[in-house]
Design brief:
Layout: H1 10-77, H2 89-99, E1 105-110, E2 116-118, H3 138-147, E3 151-157, E4 163-173, E5 176-186, H4 187-194, E6 204-211, E7 218-220, E8 234-238, E9 243-249, H5 254-311, E10 316-319, E11 325-329, H6 340-343, H7 348-351, H8 354-370
Helix pairs in contact: 1-4, 1-5
Length: 379
């Protein structure tokens, strides 16, 4: 005997709803993930653009501050006569110093030796220092000579104390290198001029770095804030000193936090959609099972009633409580006035004369009300 699996079995009912729920969850989760990713991309791009704009603004202010150094070094070169002797440095340097912002010291460096400094009292330790003979400091000095333009060295430890940068403009007399006209800018002055916030109050961390002339490794000059691939940075180049200015958001995970509500909402909607799909898939199967069950019960009940009716030795009419003929059996073989197929499924009032029909319906009502067997006769 060949056995066939019943599609209405519990296993069959559960397999399709679970599949529908799983597919619904995957589809809704995919849509919500796509929307969350789009939101993440938008916020991420906005953050990058804001960081880049801030970096460009700081770079612009930084270069503007360095321009003061250029005009100051140019002014000091005018003090050097054709014989290479500075004239009136002590009397003119104070005017140049006061006329230019963001400068902490002025220097004339004939032959690479710091000889003239203003203010002298704060920078005495630097006087007599030969820049070109110091292998740790002369790389950028020689680069300035090679470029024949103002070039900034540092940040590094200054001979007079503290950390700063030195801008050196090479001076040539009769196309022969004479020395440098230089300015010293402390790191704190430079940061103030550029508007660089080292505490992250503005919502961004800044970093100033450059490649070491000797080791070629990148050196950082501001407090290290953990720049990493997880928290992106935007960098711009400052050509005058070959520095790299980096900007990083204090909250590097802001873009991820922005999509958390969307992601959570998407997860909830996906779960609810999956549950609804499972329930909706089970409902037709349950209804089908219920209909099949009721049909089987009705069929069984009808067969039982039919058997009872057929077993009776007398003529039997089966009438519903509404007065409709449902079944008929006559084992005696007597013929009725109307054939059974003419009155089965019709109402009593459609078959019997009105007075008799009313009497029959009256007795049916009494039977239903009392639940007792009642007998009556009529002609």
């Amino acid at each position: 005997m060949k056995l066939q699996k019943d599609s209405t079995s519990p296993t069959g009912l559960l397999t399709k709803p679970l599949l529908a729920g799983s597919l619904t969850f995957v589809i809704l989760a995919s849509i919500c993930s796509y929307l969350a990713y789009q939101r993440y991309t938008i916020v991420r791009n906005e953050e990058r653009e804001n960081a880049h704009n801030i970096a460009e603004s700081v770079r612009s202010r930084l270069q503007q501050a360095l321009q003061y150094s250029f005009s100051a070094t140019q002014a000091m070169t005018l003090l050097i006569d054709r014989q290479g002797i500075p004239a009136n440095f002590d009397s003119i340097a104070p005017y140049i110093f006061r006329a230019h912002k963001y400068i902490d010291a002025l220097e004339l460096v004939p032959g690479g030796v710091i000889t003239y400094v203003y203010p002298a009292t704060e920078n005495e330790a630097a006087i007599g220092y030969n820049i070109l003979k110091d292998p740790n400091r002369n790389k950028e000095a020689y680069k300035a000579i090679e470029k024949r333009e103002l070039f900034f060295a540092g940040p590094f430890k200054l001979r007079q104390g503290g950390t700063g940068v030195v801008g050196r403009l090479p001076v040539f007399i009769n196309d022969k290198f004479w020395g440098f006209s230089a300015v010293v800018i402390k790191l704190s002055t430079l940061l103030k001029a550029a508007g660089i916030d080292t505490a992250g109050i503005t919502g961004y961390y800044f970093q100033l770095s450059k490649a070491n002339p000797d080791t070629k490794e990148e050196e950082f000059f501001l407090p290290f804030r953990g720049f990493s691939a997880k928290q992106y940075e935007v960098a711009v180049t400052v050509p005058d000193g070959e520095w790299k200015l980096s900007v990083m958001p204090v909250n590097g995970y802001k873009s991820l936090q922005a999509i958390m509500p969307v992601a959570l909402l998407g997860l909830v909607l996906s779960l609810l959609g999956a549950v609804f799909a499972v329930y909706a898939s089970k409902t037709p199967a349950r209804l089908q099972q219920l209909v099949s069950q009721r049909t089987a019960e009705l069929y069984k009940s009808e067969n039982r009633n039919k058997a009872i009716v057929n077993a009776l030795p007398d003529m039997v009419f089966v009438v519903s409580k509404e007065g409709r003929f449902l079944d008929f059996n006559d084992p005696t073989g007597n013929k009725t006035l109307m054939r059974p197929e003419q009155f089965i499924s019709k109402r009593v009032s459609e078959v019997l004369p009105p007075p008799l029909a009313a009497e029959v319906m009256s007795y049916i009502g009494k039977v239903i009300d009392t639940g007792q067997i009642m007998s009556y006769s009529y002609q």
